[in-house]
Records
---
Amino acid sequence: MDVYREIQKDIFGDLYIPENKKIRHLILLFLFIAVVVGGLLTVSDYTQRYDALGIIYPDRGAYTISSDRNGIINNIKVTDGSHINKSDILFIVNSSHSSRKYINNEESYAQLLRENYNNIGRNNEEEISAYKKQLDLIDKEIKSENDNLSSLLTEKKLIDMSLNSNQALYNKLENAYKNKVVTITDKNNAQSQLMESVLQQSSLQRVIYEKKEKIIDLKIQKSTLEEKLKYSSSSRKEKEINNMINIYNNTEKNEYTQLSPVQGTITSINKQENSQVKEGEYILSIIPDGSKYNAIIFISPEIVGRVKLNSKITLHIDSYPYQRFGVISGKIVHISNIPLNIENIYNKFNVKVDIPSYIAIAEIECNDNIRLIPDMTLKADIPLETRPLFKWLYSSLFKNDTGISF
């Protein structure tokens, strides 16, 4: 027994090892559990997520149809979800009991045109202005990224020259070492410098690749915005012409006929047959043909810096319980550079939010079980950051991708 204790002391020093077998077994079990738990904390990841409010919205926007005058709406020719062609009759407004009177002379026509010219296209003026602002911001961002890329390419040339120089020096020292002219220390120092140059080159190449990918993404976003701007501008001109024609055709009449300005699908009818309408009051919306549905997501300024482009997200449509219909997957393709205030969000999307929010656009993947309708509300499950569990437990000791400890 004394010999055993001497061996134990030689191995473990002054560490106390109980001689009772049960206690030793408990200690070993505790160590085993600690190792298993530590391993799980090290290899298991946890993704922090953020739930955001959103709606379904067509990528080409929606045409808002409002009443041209005060009166009674009659002969509504369409229903929610019905398809219409351009110039089809939508509804008729009978203004025979309206307080607005028209005089059939040139002065009256001129005054009426002046009044309506300022109002024509007001439904998409904000959209066109927003597209232009986004294009300006993207142009500035592309220029900034190109300038950064130029600097990185210049830096790469210098690193390539340094790498070639270190490679040549290492080759000379390696030959000299073989001939026993220099020591192994000299050779190892040269090898370390060479490896450092290789690592710098590799790291810089990765950064350059990411910059090029970002520039490509920005150019795609710019092209998409230019198409939307062109479409909105051309649609506005058509609407101006149609409105002018309607003004001339209906000024001297009691009945005003509203024609469809575009081919598409009717949605969100707000009035019923024989109901009273006021001038400028919203009646219905039209989704142009060829539109794809995107998710418009409202993101808090506190969290927007941690939401990344191309993140895969999960959408829970409020009208379709996910337990029965499943969920929709999507990918964030755009995040606005400036937040919209509460009033603008409500006027544009008819959604009430508590604070000014950034607008994120997510492309939606198909789900055959779900029929999407504009303005459907949803909850977006957005991933923010993935870390091993032990880093979350000791988060104050680690920094996230932005360099911030939390």
---
Amino acid sequence: MYTSNFGGTTEFCCPEFFHTGSCQPFLADIWAMMVTLYVIIFRRYPFLNPDEIKRCQLDLKFLQSRISEELYDLFTSTLTHQPYHRLTMHEIEKHDWVQQPFHMELYSWNTVTQNSLEETFLTGNHLPSGEDDNSNDHSFASLTRQIQNQFNLFDKNKKDIKSDKNDLVAYLNCKHASI
């Protein structure tokens, strides 16, 4: 079963949707889930726009230098261009990275993230100091700017509509008064 309806954020949309205008919902959900995991871990998007998503080329050098072999395998097995080559939910559940032991009491937020929240979320400094990100801005600060721009556009359109509505009401009142 395929769908041509997409309701969501562009950065989470699967590549096949941009190629064909449709996708298989369960495979698209796996893609979106793995983009979410990527964002949680790296605080940046793996792909920022439809062209990057269509090319579906993960920055393998970036990945390999920062994560375990198991997590690297999970990302490269799910964030792949061919939807039917992606791991299934059952395979993800059985994956070594998902099945590894986890003891919450051994972790602290600052240790896991390695950065303060202000540094990462508000300024967009998502790479360790001294590293240069020569790609597009994949940070949460970029997302925040995009959202703010959308709200500003929405507010402008809303004001324009309200102004048009007021003009129409004034016109109708004037018409009604002249009858």
---
Amino acid sequence: MKLLLSRFFIFTLFFLPCTTYVINEKNAVKEIPQILATADAKACAMNANKAWVDVALLIDNSANMGASNLRKISTIASLIFSKFTIGNSPKISHDHRNTRVAVLSYNLQATVEANFSSITSLQDLANVLNGIQVSTNKEANIYSVWLQSRTLDPFCGSNIQDVTNCIQAFRPRVMIYFAAANK
């Protein structure tokens, strides 16, 4: 049980703006104070259209994925993100919240198809996803796309050496992998 609780705590550290609760062995619920308290840190939304989160879609476009699976990803993403307010504002103003979406594709190398400031609507997202082509390359370098996704953070430089010194503050980050291979 202690191992499970410690893993839960570590997982929740990635979502600092949200209030975190831990249930101990006696089923007592305790609130964990936020480690990073700022004026920009807002409570988590309870519905999708008020979500204030960064979502990075990491899509395998190697030959293993195939064109039909890429189209399925586009359809699924359009259905899911129709529930969210998609925007590119990095801050909350007048309680206007939005979900920022970035899209990266990868095979042997990763490519940023759209960063967090590029996609401002569901149609923009659909256009980006429908523009991804299947590569002839069979390799799918997941590490490459993860590393490339870290450069999207506002506190990171585009230099890969800066990635180890990044801080991802204020806005929770979700990475969704769509993979057909891992080599």
---
Amino acid sequence: MDAKFGYRYVDRNSNYFKLGGNSLSATKLLVEIERRLKCKLTLNEIFSNPEFEKMLNLINSKQLGMEVVEGEI
């Protein structure tokens, strides 16, 4: 964390929980995602996809009506 400016570097690979997120804040995040993006996630999905890029991929796939399958091609 940059003490001078009061922020951390966050990118798409940042982990929500390593940045200080917890189950209570994750619940609030779920509410905001549903309100702003019209996409319903579960708490389990947040815990299973804590990196922002994975969360965004999950949201995009749900909005497109697709299932996310992880693995090698």
